[in-house]
Design a protein that fits this description.
This protein is mainly β and 196 residues long. Helices cover 6% and strands 45% of the residues. The chain has 1 helix and 20 strands. The strands form 4 sheets. Strands 2, 5, 6, 9, 12, 16 and 17 form a 7-stranded parallel sheet that branches. It has a 6-stranded parallel sheet with strand order 1-4-8-11-15-20, with no helix packed on it. The protein is globular and about 50 Å long. The N and C termini lie far apart (37 Å). The model has no long low-confidence stretch (mean pLDDT 86).
Length: 196
Amino acid sequence: DDAAAGGVAAPLKTVSEAFRRLNASGEIETIHLAAGTYSATSGESFPCEWDYGFNLRIVGAGKDATVFDGEGVTTANRFLRFGNCGGIALSGIGFRNLKLETADQTLGAAQGGAVMFSASADVTVTDCAFTGIDFAFRCALAWPIAYGGGLGALMTRIAVSGCDFTSNTCLCAADGYARALGGAAGFSPDSYGTIS
């Protein structure tokens, strides 16, 4: 129930509402996601976004139990986007069936299909799954480049561990020269990232 107080005793229905409250107060340190499917059909409004925030943990019940599902519908919205953040940790979440297509030319738009981080530090993504994420970046920039079908990072320090990447794609389409890097995950040259 999105009118609930939130927390274990009175949980919210949607991740979207948790992010709305996070953006309003900035005082939430951990978002626990129960097992289940989080999708537009279940009431989600993607993307869930957070800018200029610090020390947030988003913890699922396991990558096969807590699942963000794009339901195979083409959309211009990714699941999660973080900008200018620090100390962000995602764990135990599955992301699947997202068909993202965008021509947005703002900073970070070409990074990451399901989850994107820009200008962020001390980011960890642990025990997550990215499956069937198709990211198409279409723009008229002179030298377009897209990074990461499942997960992307721009100017970000990130560590990814114990994650599964299956059947993800990244396409960069333009009239001239275009590059696409990392169907699974892609980090821009000004990022520092590890995958283990």
